[in-house]
Amino acid sequence: MKNLKKLNRKELKSVKGSGRCFCLVSPDPCYDLNVNNQGVPYVFNCCTSTCVQQPPF
Length: 57
Fold this sequence. Notes:
Blueprint: H1 2-16, H2 31-35, E1 42-45, E2 50-53
Antiparallel strand pairs: 1-2
């Protein structure tokens, strides 16, 4: 979970210059993808409204 928080902060910083992106999603738009993802989580991108797969660390 710590990696998720770091990624979100980086995304927010990159978004500030080009306008803000608003997330109105509940509870988890990427749930179906995360059920059978074999350990690689998908994260919702507010700007593009898509689920993006996190690169392995």
